[in-house]
Structure formats: C-alpha cells, structure tokens
Amino acid sequence: MRLLLIEDDRETAGHVVHALQGQGHEVDTAHDGVDGLARARSGEYAALVVDRMLPGLDGLGLVKRLRSDGVRTPVLLLTTMSGLDDRVEGLEGGADDYLAKPFAVSELLARVNAITRRGALADSETTRLRIADLEMDLIRRTTSRGAKLVDLQPQEFRLLEFLLRNAGRVVTRTMLLENVWDLHFDPRTNIVETHVSRLRAKIDRGHAVELIHTVRGSGYILRAD
Amino acid sequence: MRTRIFHSEGFRLSAIFAGAFVLSMLAMGVVVLLQTGQALRDQIVQSSRSDIAAIQRGYASEGLHEAREVVEQLMGAPGGSDFFLLQKGVTRIAGNLPTMSPQAGIVHFPATANHGEILGAGAWIAPDVYALSGSSVDRVHETQSHILRILLWLFAGSLLLAVLGGILVSRSFLRRTDAMARACRAIMDGDLRARIPVRGTRDELDRLAGTINEMLDRIAALMENIGQVTNDIAHDLRTPVTHLRQRLERAKTECIDSADYEHALDAAIEKTDEILTLFAALLRIVQIEGGSRRAAFAPVELNPLLHHMRDLFAPVAEAASHHLRIDAESRAAIRGDRALLVQLFSNLIENAIIHTPQGTRIAIVLALSQDRVIVTISDDGPGVPPEEHNKLFQRLYRREASRAHPGHGLGLAMVSAIADLHGAQATIDSRHSGFAIHVSFPITS
Known about the structure:
Number of helices of chain A: 8
Number of helices of chain B: 10
Order of helices and strands of chain A: EHEHEHEHEHEEEEHEHHEE
Structural class of chain B: alpha+beta
Helix content of chain B: 55-70%
Distance between the termini of chain B: 54 Å
Strand content of chain B: 15-25%
Oligomer: heterodimer
Number of strands of chain A: 12
CATH class of the largest domain in chain B: Alpha Beta
Number of domains of chain B: 3
Number of domains of chain A: 2
Strand order of the largest sheet of chain B: 2-1-5-4-3
CATH topology of the largest domain in chain A: Rossmann fold
Helix content of chain A: 25-40%
Radius of gyration of chain B: 50 Å
CATH superfamily of the largest domain in chain A: Response regulator
Strand content of chain A: 15-25%
Shape of chain A: elongated
Strand order of the largest sheet of chain A: 2-1-3-4-5
Order of helices and strands of chain B: HHHEEEEEHHHEHEEHEEHHEE
CATH architecture of the largest domain in chain B: 2-Layer Sandwich
CATH architecture of the largest domain in chain A: 3-Layer(aba) Sandwich
Largest sheet of chain B: 5 strands, antiparallel
Largest sheet of chain A: 5 strands, parallel
Radius of gyration of chain A: 19 Å
C-alpha cells in the first residue's frame, strides 16, 4: 500500500518508515503540516499517519481540513502520551484511530492495517460474521461453531465480534482494551489474556482447527489456516 | 499621585455626583429667586391696598382732614410703604409724590430722577379724591440679591466639599488598588505567597480581593503540585534509568551469543516501557488535578458502570483464585467522566486482586445516603496498618510488602486525583478487618 507519514521528528519518521517498508508498504514523508496537507489532498494514499504536534499546521487541524475538503483517506493520529483529551478530540476531528506515543512498532502496524481495511467491511450493514465454521449473528446475538451453538457472555460476544471484524489481521492488547472494554489506560492485571483464554475455551476447545492464535509480542489473530 | 487621583474611579464618581449636585443647586436657586420676587411684589401690593383701605376709612369717618392725618401717620410708621399721595382734583393734599393723573388698581411707575421703580395700588376714595400707596421695587431686588449671595456661598461651599470628598474617596480607593497592584507585582517578582490585603469590611473591593486571593491559592497549589511532580520524576525516574543503564552495560560485557543479546534487549525494552508508563501516569495525574476535564462531564449511571467492572474483572479475579462479588442494585447517577471513573474503579479492584493472597473475597458495593452515593471496594485480605493509610495516597509510595507486585505506587494517587475532580472523597475504612476504600460522590439531582 502507498502510505503518507506526516511527522516532524526525523528520527521517529525514519523509524516508522523503516517499519512500514518492512511490511512491504510504500511510504512518503512530509515534515510539516502545510506540506503534509498538500500531499494528502492528492488523495493517492491508502492511509495517512499524522503526528498531532506539527509545525505550520497541527495534526488535528490538518485532519479537519482534509475532511472538510471531502478527502476520506483513513487517518491514524499519533498523540502525546498523557493526552487525556487527544483521543476524543482526534476522533471527533475525523481521525479513524489514534495511537499514543511512544508506541511499539507492532502496535503501529496493526493499527494501520486495521484502518486501511475498515472500509472493506461495511461495519453497520453486516448482520452476520463468519470464518471457517464459526458464525456470529449480530441481530439475534447468537454464535455457533459447526452445528453447535456457543453460549457467550456479552463481553465475550463483543470480544469475538471485534476479532471477527478484524479476521486475518493482528489485533493488539491495547486495541482490544480500547474497543472491547473501553479502557484507555494500561491495566496491571492480565485482563486481555484472561478473557481471550476463556473465549478460546468456548470457541476452540474440542475442535481440530484452532481459530484464535497468539502472536507473540503483538497480540492475537483470528485465522482459519 | 496628584494626577493619578484625578484619573481614579473614585474621583470620577465623586465628580459626577458633584456635577449633578451643582446642576440641582442652580435649578433650585432660579426657582427660589423667581418665587421670592413674585411673593415680595404681591406683598407690596397687598400692603398698599390695606393703606388705601385705612385712608378711605379715615375719609369716611371725618373727611379729607382725617384722611390726610392717616396718610401722615402711615408715612411716619416704620416698615410701611415708601410713597403716598392723596389728591383732590388736581391738588395734592398729602404724600411725598407729585400729583398725577389718577389710575385705579395696581400701579407701576418706572424709575425717574427722583425715585426708583415703584409698585403699589391706587383708588378713588371719593368721587374727586384719589389715594395711592406704593413701595420701591428696589426692596425686592435687594432681597433677591441677598438670597443670591447666600446661595452662591452655599454653592461654593458644597462644591469644595464635593471635590475634597472626591479626593478623599479616590485616595482610599487608590490606596487599596495600589495594594492590589503591589501584591500582583510581588507575585510577578517571584513571591508566590504574597496576597492582597483584605480589610474585613466585606465591601466589593474586599470581595474582589478575596476572590483574587482564592485564585492565587489555587494557582499556588497547582504550581506546588507541578514542582512536586518534577521532583518526583527527577527522583523516581533515576532509579529505573540507572537500572536500565546497568543492564545494558552488563549485557555488553557478558553476552556471548545472539540469544543472550536478544534476551538483554527484550529486558531493556521492557524496562524502558516501564519508565514511559510511569512518566505517562505521573503526567496524567497532574493533568487530572488541573481540573480541565470537568468541562467534559456528563451524567454517568454508576450501577451499569459497576456491573461492567464486575464483568471485566470477575474472570481475572477468578484466574487469580480470588472471588469478586457485587452488590450494586440501587440506581444512582453522578456527573463525571466515564473513562476516568472506569480507571478509578479498575485501580481499586486491581489493587485488591494484586495485593491480597489467594482465596481473598473482594466486594463492590454501592450504597446511597441522603445526598451522596458511596461506592466501596473492600476485601477480607490482611489489610494495611492504619498508620500507613495516609501515605497510601501519596504519589509513588509503595509498601515494602508490595514491592514484588507490578505497579508504580501511583494507583491510589490516581484514585485520589480522579475522586477530587468529581468532588468525591476517597477514604480508607480503618475499622474494616481487611482493606476497604469508600468513594463518596455527590448525587446529581
């Protein structure tokens, strides 16, 4: 994919470009908001990675300008680490996701993958999600694996739904914490591991093909191979 | 000082009052002069008429001779009319005016070489006998100018008083605003404890001074807080950064193969993450304590929120061989920030899971009192000695007993900051046999 990174700190920019190129992406870089906006307007990018603090025009202002110009390119906003309001402001301003600095490269890659494919799966209109013999009915709130119904608690249902919507892609612990449980801080207990292992017991136990896989150092992936 | 007085608010106000006073004095003076003039003229005419009546009575009783006697008597009387004339046909019988063509009713002669302006009354007391009595209008003018002089003195006196009063008022006003300016300048120069003097009169300047002082107290508290955080960061980041450096140094000398290096690098990255998390948590606490989040407050139903917490942590507690129970059936709404409240309760529940032995029972309880809603997170674990209770809320305080567990000693500091932001109190229950924290929120009506 062709991506645009707008980041004024050249060391961070180099680091991010290297990581994205390592995943086979083609990356352009802009070092200030004005140049970034001009390039982003061309609309040839699959996604934009935009730093919140930029010289010239700040990241949030840039996203707002793009959206008011009708440019729909997915945006991942990079924010400062303690920015309590950055998340809400960023999402309200038109960003598709945000990531607090400093971040692990695996986290960045997972987020970029998630926002670029978000459009492919028409979120609101989908009523059934399926992978291999696992199926979720979002209207009737039922889940089945093969011929058997699986009884899920509401939070387990949301967890599986999120994994299914991102099937084939790595989802990180932080993405799960934010999207499934609405937690925006780093918990000290192994919340994610515990819930995933309970879900696994209900979904995968007794089946020849395991669907939920752990990606060491990154997170989890729902995959049928 | 001299010119500043004239530019002061106090002086401006007294000048306005003095101006209004001068205008009303002028209006009053004009009315008084016109009214007294008219009254005096009426009085002259009145007294002339009674003179003529007396002359007529004399003539009626004993004829022209007696009328002449009456005129001469009246002319000699002090305080009476100035001018008289009694004439029969064209002959003057008595009086001090020359004969004239008779004129009945009110008479008014302009000034001549012999006398000034005369006002009076004339009448035929018999078919060919004419009497006239009158007084000089100068009397009226004299009285009027006398009144005018008194008014001018009063006017000058009160104008002087108004100006002096204005100066006094503005001087006291200036003294107080100067005191305010001095205090502000002292603060600008670095003395953050300087405050504006309050006189205790509870007037508007006092109230303003009080409000400014409260604002300064708040700013000072925030500054102190920031200073403390800077110290904390400097102090407490040193240790992990030193450890990190030691580990890297050791890896450089001791690692033999790439597996060793990878292990050392993983450990270093983990340590760095720990430092960054600590840093972020400290900054977050400061930001919460700043209070700006209050702007985004919305109603939050505590009952579903606590059940969400239970659903989130019950499996975690179970996996750690703890029991998590909830007793939160009452409905209660508060105004707050949902994400921060989730963090507050998470911190308390995680503390209970992390710092107690297996088999401990943890309870989330929601209770209502008259105007407060109290959420209690308690456990029946070993508890914390009461003398340590206060220290628990301090930033970066970690009990000896808990150093082996994950954490930075910021959990309860964060709880306290979030509770404060919501106008809530977080208190440790010292009577509870295990460990219990009550968070008491004001209820939204």
